[in-house]
Write a structure and sequence with these properties.
With about 325 residues, this protein is of the alpha+beta class. It has helices at about 5-10, 20-25, 30-40, 65-70, 75-80, 90-100, 150-165, 225-230, 240-260, 265-270, and strands at about 45-50, 55, 80-85, 105-110, 135-140, 170-175, 180, 185-195, 200-210, 280, 285-295, 300-305, 305-310, 320. It contains ten helices and 14 strands. The relative contact order is 0.13.
Length: about 325
């Protein structure tokens, strides 16, 4: 976004004179006017107030790496390598590239928009500019693949806890790892594996999408929600959500590495959207009532022949390309 500095100067919603903006940007007043026109073409609604200057009509929630880092707990600030991008194909792919390039620390990528955001089971993930949070982190675990059992459910708990800490009650988890509010899906998680693995070292890319300001998504084929929609809280800030989420994510990944999924079972279960609901599983082979999860993160369905665990096999745990 070429006009990011101008837009951030205007982001307080006040009228700014062309003269002052020219000074702050270090350009001529004509150049300011050109940037205003470009910002309008990028979708920002800027009003020209006659004789006074320019004013941003619709509020913006700009991503800012400095603000995100300032909002982090110190341990997280010291351990991550944060990249904030204006635009990217997919933040998961970006992390994959960074790992291949030998990034040091825990790579975390956040983008203002994704041109090829992806969801589970090969679906696209709608990623409009400036509206939502698109965040991925590269996490390292040691052992064989079984150490990853339940990881995506753990990430769901981390997202739910973060949103609750930020003041949103009633976040639900839909097995295996969708983030739900009563009116629909609020977010999703895509866990992917890095292609080349060292012996005993497993690199995982954890991608998280949370709908923050999204107000229109005609092409999404299921009920969806957003933070602006479900909460009366004014001014959700993507920077603030990102800081809180990174902190919880790293902390949860540490506990998971030490103690495994068992440490998160109750936290997941208490937010279970399916609990007590009539369910159909395994493509129609199994019908019964939702009874929560077992110690490996399998979903338990109580049917005519007793309680049957449904394996978490449909979780998108696949080799990323
Ligand atoms: C789902 O289908 O529910 C998972 C959606 C995951 C979307 C996030 S947005 C950040 C990261 N980058 C992607 O391309 N996908 C994930």
């Amino acid at each position: 976004m070429k006009t990011k500095v101008l837009v951030s100067l205007l982001s307080d919603g006040q009228v700014h004179s062309g003269e002052r903006l020219a000074e702050e940007l270090g350009v001529s007043r004509t150049a300011v006017w050109k940037q205003v026109r470009r910002a309008a073409a990028e979708g920002f609604e800027i009003e020209t107030v006659r004789g006074r200057g320019y004013k941003l009509v619709t509020p913006v929630d700009l991503l800012d790496a400095g603000v995100i880092l300032d909002g982090l707990v110190e341990s997280a600030r010291n351990s991550i390598c944060l990249t904030v991008l204006d635009e990217v194909d997919s933040t998961n792919t970006e992390i994959l590239r960074q790992i291949s390039d030998g990034v040091s620390g825990v790579p975390v990528a956040i983008a203002d928009c994704q041109t090829m955001g992806r969801g589970r089971r090969g679906r696209p993930w709608r990623s409009p500019r400036g509206e939502n949070l698109y965040l991925s982190a590269g996490l390292t675990f040691h052992g064989d693949f079984s150490v990853l059992d339940g990881l995506s459910l753990v990430l769901g708990v981390a997202v739910a806890e973060t949103l609750e800490e930020l003041g949103l009650p009633g976040v639900r988890l839909k097995w295996p790892n969708d983030i739900f509010m009563p009116d629909g899906k609020l977010g999703g998680i895509l866990v992917e594996l890095q292609g080349e693995l060292q012996e005993g070292v497993i690199r995982v890319i954890a991608g998280i999408g949370i709908n923050v300001h999204m107000s229109c998504a005609d092409d999404v084929d299921q009920a969806w929600s957003s933070l602006d929609r479900v909460s009366t809280q004014a001014g959700w800030s993507r920077n603030r959500i990102a800081s809180a989420l990174i902190g919880t994510l790293l902390h949860s990944a540490d506990i998971f590495a030490q103690k495994g999924f068992g440490a998160f079972q109750d936290a997941w279960q208490s937010r279970d959207l399916f609990n007590g609901q009539q369910l159909i599983a395994k493509g129609g082979e199994l019908a019964g009532v939702g009874r929560g999860i077992d110690g490996q993160g399998n979903y338990l369905v109580e049917g005519e022949s007793g309680v049957v665990p449904v394996r978490a096999g449909e979780i998108s745990l696949r080799v990323a390309r």
